[in-house]
Amino acid sequence: MAIREIVKYGNPRLVAKNHTVDLFDDPALAALLQDLKETCWAAPGVGLAAPQVGVNLRVAIVDLSVGKDPSQVLVLVNPVVVDAQGLIRDEEGCLSFPDMVETVERPEKVTVEALDERGKKRTLDGRDLLARAFCHEIDHLDQRLFVDRLSSLKKGLVLRQVIKRQKKGTW
Ligand code: ZN
Known about the structure:
Strand content: 25-35%
Bound molecules: zinc ion
């Protein structure tokens, strides 16, 4: 297994269409999930979506313990948000936007339906940070980045910083 390179904003893979997984008990899927976990823990981060390692599949992981508690690792294959309640504004970052944090509005509580690596359907409830992580990762699978949740003014400011760092070669 391996730590993969996390692609940054500007890489076309980050906004390419992500395909539904239809093959389970598959060594390639198992390897992808293991690499997503290891890459996320090493970053470190609380979640990582497959397009962030350049793989355009509807696969992500969330782990609020960042590798410390195996029972908290959640595998999301073909996930969908089926219910959302409340709204909270809080700080949020993205491993594809290193060292940037912005205030983003997200549901306070969500219910997600997803498959596990064997194709078994699971219903997952999350609130606060877990709800935020689910929404952030599922957004990635829908080709939506956290900056797309900002006002156009704020998004413009963030993207200007990115361009500056790209020009300096620090992106
Ligand atoms: Zn992200």
